Amino acid sequence: HANRRPMHLISVSSPQVRRIELHDSSMEGNKMRMEMLTNQPFERDDMRFEPGGKHAMLFDVDRKLKPGDKIALTFTFDPAPPVTVAADVVAAGDEEPGR
């Protein structure tokens, strides 16, 4: 965003998912730790979703979705309008698209 004021990622939602939580994973010693994020602030171009880091965890996903389908995810920000993206559906354990 062109504004210098920090933005906040408030939530992620989808009509095909009952609940989506934002998490950040990190290593503490030899253990992976996952922390739930709420109202996550970030500077422009500063938030990345990636394996082993920040991610959206989807619960109770529509069972009609199959690998190869697309799912609409809406990211709600403050102070900015929501952004909807199409994400690829992959089977659990499959390699992430683009890797």
> Gyration radius, to the nearest Å?
15 Å
Strand-pairing-aware structural class: mainly beta
CATH architecture: Sandwich
Overall strand count = 7
The 3D shape can be described as globular
Biggest sheet, spatial arrangement of strands: 4-1-6-7
Number of helices: 0
- State the helical fraction: under 10%
At the first level of CATH, the class is Mainly Beta
For the biggest sheet, the summary is:
4 strands, antiparallel
What distance lies between the first and last C-alpha atoms, to the nearest angstrom? 27 Å
Q: Remind me, CATH topology?
A: Immunoglobulin-like
Count of discrete domains: 1
Taking pLDDT < 50 over at least 5 consecutive residues as the criterion, the unreliable ranges are: none
Mean pLDDT: 84
Order of helices and strands: EEEEEEE
Strand content: over 45%
What does this 3D model show about the protein?
- The protein is mostly beta strands.
- The chain has one domain: Immunoglobulin-like (Sandwich).
- Helix content is 0%, strand content 53%.
- The protein contains no helices and seven strands.
- The protein has strands at 7-13, 17-28, 31-37, 40-42, 54-61, 70-78, 83-88.
- The strands form two sheets. The protein has a four-stranded antiparallel sheet, with no helix packed on it. Strands 3-2-5 form a three-stranded antiparallel sheet, with no helix packed on it.
- A hairpin with a 4-residue loop joins strand 6 (70-78) and strand 7.
- The two termini are 27 Å apart.
- The model has no long low-confidence stretch (mean pLDDT 84).
